[in-house]
Amino acid sequence: MTVRLDDDGTIRLVNDCPAEDAESLLQLLLEHPGSRIDWNLCRGAHTSVIQVLLVASRAPAGSPPDAFLGNLIGPALVRSRR
Amino acid sequence: MNEFIEQFLLEARELVEQATDDLLALEERAADANRIDSLFRAFHTLKGAAGIVDFLAMGRALHAAEEVLSEVRGGSKTVSPKLVNDGLACVDQVIRWLDEMQTNGQTPTNADAAADEIVRRFMAEANSLADTGKNAPDDAELGSWLKRLCADRGEDVAQSRSAFCFRPDAEAFFRGEDPLAVVARIPGLRAVDLAWRGMSGLENMDPFSCAVDIAGLADATEDEVRATFDGIVGRLEIVDLPDLATSQIPPQARLVLQGQVLLLQEGHLEGKAGRLAAAGRVASNVLRHLGMVASASEMDAILVECLADEDAAKLAAAIENVIEEKPANQIAGSVDSARPNQIPASRVLRVDAARIDALVNLTGELTVVKNAYGHIAALAQSGAEPKDIVANLRAQQALFDRLVGELQRAVLQIRVLPLRQVFQRFPRQAREISTNLGKPVKFVTEGDDTEADATIVESLFEPLLHVIRNAIDHGIEAPARRHERGKPPTAAVTLRARRHLENVIVEVEDDGGGIDVDRVREVAIARNVLSSDVVAKMADAEVVALIFAPGFSTASEVTGLSGRGVGMDSVKTAVERVGGNVTVDSRPGQGTTIRLTLPFTVMMTRVMTVEAAGQVFGFPLDTVVETAAVAREHLVSIGLGRAFVLRDRTVPLVDLAASLGLARSAQSGGEAKVVVTSAAGQLGGIEVDRLGERMDVMLKPMDGLLKNMRGVAGTTLLGDGRVLIVLDVQELFQ
Q: Is B178 in Cβ contact with A55 (below 8 Å)?
């Protein structure tokens, strides 16, 4: 699973998250609305996954190894909350 | 009043009428998709128009209404009676604001409370369904992505060569596309903005539908960006960011201006005027902010021009010129000289383009005739036979005559309007009256495409409203009474128009109780309209006609609607003022029909000229019965007046000069020349000095100070330049 809820209550995005992960992420966020989201290990995320984060108004914590996610998408998610 | 407000009032009134019409139609058939669309458009355009004139309160109220309507349009909500009522309340408020603006020439400053009230009404409506969350960006806001993208990103903007916004297709995910992955490939990408345009809230979200707008700044050329998106379905907008080092316009301002150009380049017609005005104003404000006052003024002038022509391309070009720092007036060189004269709103006439085309054609033909006269003059000069010249002249004269006739008809056609313009205001009024009185009424209009002169059409609203009020208030029985009589509970009131020869007939028919003749007799006597023995001798039909007598009102109960002391006599006066008459047809127990017979045109009148006290006067030929020469010894004095006998009838005689207060000319000869006229069914003789000729004239109604002058119907110019005063025969005898 590239999107998972760990025992510490954190939702983690790891490796390359495909389009199907959007639904899993959405379910997790609906069931555990307050959870921390972490993308320290995320190497890529499909638009559909980013879209869920956008609607949830959440920017994940951490700095993903992928520069596009870290330098551009992360700030864009933060900005969209304004 | 500035021209924005003038234009606004003109447009807004039409939109308000459209909205009312649609709301009433939806009350009948709630699911009519065309009406829902049309209603939504009307509110949407009104909102845009309110923006043009900076009328924020109105914009706010309409926005609230539009929100709910957009749900109705999307199918998530249906048209309820409450929604119709709220819509009508909103329209009413808008009308009140418009009236205020018409009077004051500026937007009302105290509109907020009323706007809040409207917003509250519609908020309650909106809350009855699931939270719809953030609004999808309005069409008009599409150009604003650039502004958002560049906010607080001065350095990124300065180092980027292009800005883009990509809206992927909603089905993108199903096709296996990953729009962000494409964006990531853009060379030199410096910043990204994401904007969600679906329903807000995770619980409402469809994770398989793509509804995100991706905007970005990149150090890549427009072509490079475009190439990256090649083969991906969606909408892409790219703005080329120029080399800023050499420019005197700061990057932020430049972007705002470019945003306006984008806004203008969208091809939608909806709210076009609003968009034009908004873009133009923003551009001019930006320029003013930069201290480029001259360019700003130029932009204002161009905007006025573009608004008049609805020409978005021209404005866009002008803004682009400013961005590229060419003088703005390169495009608008002719603007100042060509600025249209301001036309007072109340005198604007909407004319079918075909009628204007007919005039253009006639002008062409007249030019041909004009040239022919030049040719004839040349013939005469070269010594042609007078006989040939005369034949030639006669032929041209005949042609000229025909063309002038056609031109006259064509010009009159311009003033002709369908009665719809006044009829469409009544369903709303009828609905209100029937609700207030608790009498259910089905109001039907027929023949609203019947045409009449604009003056007639415009003068009909007041009298018809009065007749319709009377029909519902007094004509139609109370529901209980209808039940007793075995009539359907919903009464029928029909407003009908048709053309009959040179007249337009407008009827208001109800299926009520008819006019109570005995009651009319009682009231006429009680109110001293006539004495009891006169009334007793009158036939029923004559008695019914007494409702038009001044000071008569049959309402036994003064209601808030009719019975305000203004009776049917005001209807009669109003109709007669435009040359018509009113009759009534009452069928006891079955209903009443009030019939207004109006002239088709008030403009062309056949007149007969006469002379009195050395002046020429005209009588409308339709009031002249005949002319007679009466031997003076046959004129008899009756009291202060005089009379003569014409075929065994005694006809009263007035002297024209005397009745106009002119010096009476010496009474010459043994015979008096008399014009026998008929007015309101009565014969009357008018003594004149000399009888003239008949002619067709364009009668110009009296206006200004002379508007209410008695005895004068209008004026026209005679062939020799003298003014011909055309008299109103009926008033001469009163």
A: no
B150 CB within 8 Å of a chain A CB: no
pLDDT digit string (tens) for B625-674? 899 888 888 888 888 788 998 888 889 998 888 888 887 766 666 788 99
Q: Is this structure's pTM higher than 0.90?
A: no
Interchain contact, B207 vs A26, CB within 8 Å: yes
Q: Which two tokens stand for residue B719?
A: 């062939």
Q: Per-residue pLDDT tens for B208-267? A: 889 899 999 998 888 888 888 887 778 888 887 765 444 567 667 777 788 788 777 765
What ipTM does the predicted assembly reach? Answer: 0.95
> Rounded to 5 degrees, what angle do the CA atoms B725, B726, B732 make?
110
Residue B451's contacts (CB-CB under 8 Å, 6 or more residues apart) are B416, B417, B418, B419, B499, B504, B600
Q: C-alpha angle with apex A26: A23 to A30, nearest 5 degrees?
A: 140
Torsion sign over Cα B125, B128, B134, B136 = negative
Q: Using the beta-carbon criterion (under 8 Å), do A51 and B210 form an inter-chain contact?
A: yes
Amino acid occupying residue B396: Q
- Per the CB < 8 A criterion, the answer to whether B495 and B444 are in contact is yes
Tally of CB atoms within 10 A around B81: 10
Q: In this structure, what token pair is assigned to residue B155?
A: 């350095």
Q: Where are the beta strands (DSSP E) in B53-100?
A: none
Phi, psi angle pair for B514, to nearest 5°: 75, 175
Q: Rg (Cα) of chain B, in Å, rounded?
A: 35
